[in-house]
Amino acid sequence: MSRLWDRELEHYPPDRARYTSLAIVVLTTVVLYYQLYLAGAVATQIISGFGMSFVYYVNISVVGYIFGAAASVAAGLADRYGRANIVTVGLLITGLLCLFGIPAASTKLEFAIVFIAIGFVEGIILVATPALVRDFSPQLGRASAMGFWTLGPVLGSLVVSIVVTNTVDRLGSWQDQYVICGIVGIVVFIIALVGLRELSPGLRDQLMVSERDRVLVEARAKGLDTEAITSHGFRQVLKLDVIGSAFAISVFLIIYYVAVGFFPIYFETVFGFSSSQANSLGNWLWSFDAGALLIVGWLSDKLRVRKPFMIVGAVGSIIFTLLFASKATQPDTSYTTFVVLLSLLAVFLGVAYAPWMASFTETVERHNPALIASGLAVWGLVIRIVIAVSVFFVPLVVHSVTPLVEKGPQVSALAAKYAPELATAAKLSPATAAGLAATPTNPTVQATAVSELSGQSVTDVVKVITLGAQYSDQLATAATLDVATQTALLTNPTDQASQAKAVGEIAKGLGIDPGAAIAKLQALATVPPADLVFLATSAAPVQAAAADLTALGAVPSSDLAYLQANGAEVQQAAADSPTQWKHYFWIGALGQLVFIPLVFVMAGFWDPRKARREQEAHEVWLTEELAKLDRLEKV
């Protein structure tokens, strides 16, 4: 049982054990980001389910990031007290919160409290996990290892996209999504409880360039005063290069966090994509990002440089962020176009990020290798503050989202349900519409409305109505006659053949005997031909307009009132939303631009040849140190 709590390794582990711990760390990170990012994928359902405003939902995220920032500072204690137990206990807590806490929330306040609690715990864990990756990865393999760690947020996003895409239309409610990720979290907690290990303080507090350093590191660990070298940790790492590089990646990733938190809302409200379609775009985005992280991490280690990759990644990200932003105001942009743009954007994000993670830990090591968790705590604090600020401004910059998310679904549903009736209402003048609302049974107002709908004059409408009432029985008789018979009777009313044919059609049409049909025909003959001709040309459009007006009157007043109160606002928001989103995406591109000059303050080489010479010099020094150690052991 003590092995479940005492996880420290006194010797640097062989590759198999090291890769096992690294795999568990990556798996843990994937699950944690899956839990953290799931809300963005089902945001519209959460908002409608709790009846919260979009601003309220955004502010929950903002508060969650602020609490996560505070937790990141606390995570700096991992330099003194280790990382593995923090990760394992945290997995249990977040798993239980997702499995039981979120589904049990019955009000928006309860949901907010649980969601913020998840953000707080994960703010601690997500500092400890990259610290574990650094501990198990020498500098010469650091970018590859950090590329694998970065698969956590990327694959976490991908898992969200895949799971939601394939289950959102099948499961009963959005809470079921949290039940799934809660179960997954508990399973990974059990794996971490049994298998996750970490280096002892003496081992992890030293700089390790390559695996050849292992013997020297273990020998020095025995006499290392870990308490002394980790004291005043934050004072040692609060330097320009650490803070500047943390700020650089934070603003660089604004577009990434917009993608995680708001892309489903963006594609659903601006382009009308279904929830499944909107989330499926994430499958492409995160898949390409994951591939780029692994390939570029390997290349960065192979060439022994970080900064050139960061610059290339930043420039490419700016280009494709701007191209993506330009499509916001082009409503005919295809799904395939977005797949291509987002995939290429993801590639360049990965090109910059894996080398940055390696360079950042090396920048911290430049001050003190024993304070990796403290340095990562600074990164965690800065990035969560930047995210909180950028997310807070989403409803302010893209203020059209609020009516689209809160009122858009109901307006769209009512507009689709009453499309013919709304088309009828659109033809009425404001004065006529107001008159119908005030006195719907007023004959004058009704005649005016029918006139506007039919295109007939009010005089003709009144005449159609008057003649229709006066000759209702005769008109019913005329309706049973085909056009040829009517024409023949009008041309020659005394033609016996036409009369006989008319009697037969009337008898059949009205279901009466021939004698009664003859009487009906005689009554029809009393109607002046001019009135019949007038009705033949004017009655049909008037009757159709009257039917449309009757259908409009049958629409529930509450539905019409809702549409009248909110329809214009939603329509205006739909028109404004693309431009506002484009402006926000420009902010993301600006953050990527700010990233570029701050690359220069970080540790690392630009030229692979200089990096290789530095490594060769280290190998010479290491050989000498190992020789000294060997002589001491022999003595």
UniProtKB/TrEMBL annotation:
<dbReference type="InterPro" id="IPR020846">
    <property type="entry name" value="MFS_dom"/>
</dbReference>
<feature type="transmembrane region" description="Helical">
    <location>
        <begin position="309"/>
        <end position="326"/>
    </location>
</feature>
<feature type="domain" description="Major facilitator superfamily (MFS) profile">
    <location>
        <begin position="21"/>
        <end position="433"/>
    </location>
</feature>
<protein>
    <submittedName>
        <fullName>MFS transporter</fullName>
    </submittedName>
</protein>
<feature type="transmembrane region" description="Helical">
    <location>
        <begin position="177"/>
        <end position="196"/>
    </location>
</feature>
<feature type="transmembrane region" description="Helical">
    <location>
        <begin position="370"/>
        <end position="398"/>
    </location>
</feature>
<keyword id="KW-0472">Membrane</keyword>
<dbReference type="Pfam" id="PF07690">
    <property type="entry name" value="MFS_1"/>
</dbReference>
<feature type="transmembrane region" description="Helical">
    <location>
        <begin position="242"/>
        <end position="263"/>
    </location>
</feature>
<feature type="transmembrane region" description="Helical">
    <location>
        <begin position="338"/>
        <end position="358"/>
    </location>
</feature>
<dbReference type="InterPro" id="IPR050382">
    <property type="entry name" value="MFS_Na/Anion_cotransporter"/>
</dbReference>
<feature type="transmembrane region" description="Helical">
    <location>
        <begin position="21"/>
        <end position="48"/>
    </location>
</feature>
<feature type="transmembrane region" description="Helical">
    <location>
        <begin position="84"/>
        <end position="105"/>
    </location>
</feature>
<feature type="transmembrane region" description="Helical">
    <location>
        <begin position="145"/>
        <end position="165"/>
    </location>
</feature>
<feature type="transmembrane region" description="Helical">
    <location>
        <begin position="584"/>
        <end position="606"/>
    </location>
</feature>
<feature type="transmembrane region" description="Helical">
    <location>
        <begin position="111"/>
        <end position="133"/>
    </location>
</feature>
<feature type="transmembrane region" description="Helical">
    <location>
        <begin position="283"/>
        <end position="300"/>
    </location>
</feature>
<dbReference type="InterPro" id="IPR011701">
    <property type="entry name" value="MFS"/>
</dbReference>
<feature type="transmembrane region" description="Helical">
    <location>
        <begin position="54"/>
        <end position="77"/>
    </location>
</feature>
<dbReference type="InterPro" id="IPR036259">
    <property type="entry name" value="MFS_trans_sf"/>
</dbReference>
<keyword id="KW-1133">Transmembrane helix</keyword>
<keyword id="KW-0812">Transmembrane</keyword>
